[in-house]
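Question (not urgent): is this output format expected?
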Amino acid sequence: MKIKKHIRNTILILLILLLPTISMLPMHASSRRVIKVGYPIQSGLTMKDENGNRYGYTYDYLMQIAQYNDWEYEFVEAKGDLNEQLTTLTKQLEDGEIDLLGCMRYNDALAKMYDYPSEPYGYAYNIIAVKDDSDLVNLESLATKKDLKIAVNKNAKTRIEKLDQFAAMNGFTYTKIEALDTEDLIKKIENEEADAYLLTDLENTEDYRSISRFSPDAFYFATTKGNTEIVTELNQAILDLSKMNPLLTTTLYNRYFENMCGEIHLNSKEKEFIKENGTIKVLVLENNAPIEDSKNGEAVGIGKDILDFISENTGMKFEYEMVKTYEEYKNKIKNREASVLMGLPFDASQAETLDVTFTSPWLVSDIMLVMNKNLDPNELKDKIKGTTYLNTPAIAEANEDKRYNNIEDLLEALNEREVDYAYINPYQLTYYTNKLHLDNLSTFSVPEYLLNQYAFGVSKNTDSRLISILNKGIRTIDSEKLNRYIYKNAYVEESFHLKDFLNEHIAGVSFVALLLIAGIVGAIFMYYRHRFEVQRAIELEYQRYQMLSIITGEMTFEYDFEKDTMKISKEGIGKIANEEMIEHFKDESAKQETNEHMVLTVLEEYLENALDRHEEVLIRMLDGSERWYQLVIKIIYDIGNYGHRPVYAIGKILDIQQQINEKEQLYKESTTDSLTGIYNRAGGFKEINHALSKQGGAIIMADLDKFKQVNDEFGHFAGDHVLIETASILKHVFHEGIVARLGGDEFLLFIQNTNKEEIALLCERALKEMHEKKYEDAKNVDVTMSMGVVFVKENASLENAMRKADELLYEAKRSGRSTYHICEETV
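Got this back:
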């Protein structure tokens, strides 16, 4: 039975851990439409393993789209190298032999050959890449490199301009080494003519690593010209995906292009340090789990796992010495008997006391106020505060401290009320609460800006290269690996005690005894064993789920369908509810129905159908804050009822507002013209198409007159100044409209709810301001503008309207420039 129980518990844990990957069930194959997709074998995007299984950024995204459209894919491959494959497949797309091709850039020439959805499905970054063994490791090393040479494709002029801007912003200079193509870029580095090359992350090769990335560019799916049905379905699917899974593009990028768990790249001096020094001595202060501790005479803890990772990836060896008291800890590091302290709180006064230098922090955690449950949290004045010698609190108070050697001693003192309260990080609090069965403690959250940070402390007499190596190792560890280290060390397996169970369930045990006497021993025994196993599995599941949630800062809850009660974790108190237990959940949620997005109303809505859920939802908490959260719910069924009756729901709520903000910022960067600050082509098209779906208006194509003369006579800097001022004038005059720069000196505008008289006045005003504008860096050149105007109906084709407006624009130029022509007919 014990083995079966462990198997069952393991399956339940795996189900919870796999919740983020559960997606909607696909549609029935019988109703699906076959879409022919071009499939070039392209690293990171569209790949195949040795068994023919497909994977990659584009493939995974297509699989997500298939959940929203009635699509089944037929993948079409081509022969030859990548360039030959792309040439073949783009020709097939143009001829209508295939329906779809991914990773397509958008520009004017391609837009005449193919149709595009309004939204991209990803972004490619420009990168500076070096060989794996290069001493250049990050942006800082570029700034300190003398005679830095970067190989660039001489035909990629826009990419080179972006590199120039990036270099100027980040304080490094370089010499351009021109190359003909990607193969030539690599040759320049192999022949030591260049230190690094400029490319995109989609094109980077395996033997070269990116040390800096910048200026994301959007990439799209493209379809055959005139295939509006596929474009419409793509637009809707991409929109649905962005709502249901706003982090999808980030997840896929990290999976296929971001070196999240890469190697630690050391320069030659750091490699010399490892060769010259044998083993590095590390001090471990016991009973400070899960940060640092000992088990059976061996060092354990999160810090130990991080040092093991560094050792595996650099060859550096570490030797550990365990100490029990802070005094011994301090004396050994001051006497140079060790080089590194394993788990040191990031505090300047502590570094001065121990005469050490900190590495970068490898763990950041919240701080919890912990007190004896008999103490009123509003009456802390004049109470005794406990702390450890290592943990100098982030919260300064006048109360006198009582210090302990380690966290374990401090928490036991709190439980026995030798001290009244303390500030402790949640990892250590959870670990020792479970290990020591501390029942007399209450915990409260403190302001989010108060954080604990942990780092390695390195003796000041130690070579600075040791700190550099440790810092590189810390930066290389991704959050997923760190969370595994935390969970591995923070979780304490609770043992089951029959005595505790009998005390807690004395009524049930007595009832069973009476029924045994009555002669129905077997049936009742089987029933209670079943109920006990279900309850025990749920308790263990919820405990582990809470542990995972504490690690990642999530709020958790447990809902009882029969009792209509909801239990929430400490992280949710004050946000989901004011108390840990909600006795009448549906009644409480009904009180919030008048307020949109309120947390209990949202939870009731998602629990109503008793289905597993994994959604991104907008939630308003009790404190009034409204943010985006990831909501995950797992339904547990009564096994005896063959899974038909829901018993409990276990869920978590994770704040993802920062990720949403980052995505929005990335989207803003991809839709904004970096020079003028107005919409770029992609952003303008999206906004205008959206506006056209609601109401008609006026489409204006505008183009500068004599702009080439400015560039030729006064240089590109003066030209940029003219473009910036032009955008400013257009934004000022057409302030109620949408203004975008298509590229070069071309601009596109859309004004809703207007008429010919109003547009004529606005155009004359814009031309007047352009004529009156003088430029110090482009004197004696009268920069003017010509414009073509077309009025369009609701849901009109933007492409057709632009074509007609462009014709009128050039009629205006032929008639003498600095004027406008308005089409007499509505398109």
